[in-house]
Amino acid sequence: MVTKTYAALLRGINVSGHKKVPMARLRALLEGLGHGGVQTYLQSGNAVFTAAHGDEESLAAQLGAAIAEEFGFAVDVLVRDGAYLRAVADACPFPAATLEAKQLHVTYFSAPVDADRFAPIDQSAYLPEEFRLGDRVLYLYAPDGLGRSKLAAQLARPGLTKGLVATTRNWNTVTRLVEMTRD
């Protein structure tokens, strides 16, 4: 049986005591769904697993439904395969090797986004901060970190991501998930 390695990216869990999902229970939940090689990374909702069938959307829906049943609240889930995660890291338009991980972030989207969605943002007003779009992702360079980024605050406005699931990871997490999903 051929299996494929995936990463599940959960949005908005374990933040300030809200939507608590212990990683041991998340691992057990994934195993209970029949997935193998289950690992988690950090407490912020990153899990790696193998699956013999399914696609990203159906796997995300399955995990989201299982989390709602197990924990009693809804969580947005994105599932991406290892090849996609590697392609996102390889396509980074910023010099990742020369930056601190806190300066570079990737927002993963549930669907493709086009530049028109972000056209209202005058990027020159936020320099040296910058963003670039990729394949269902947005790369953000924030030299003073995400917490101090004025551009990140603009990018997080609800209207810009309407109709999408969006979840952000720093570069350390991006590269760690690439390593963890290598087949």
From TrEMBL:
InterPro entries: DUF1697 (IPR012545)
Annotated Gene3D superfamilies: SP0830-like domains (3.30.70.1280)
Name of the protein: DUF1697 domain-containing protein
Organism for this UniProt entry: Streptomyces huasconensis
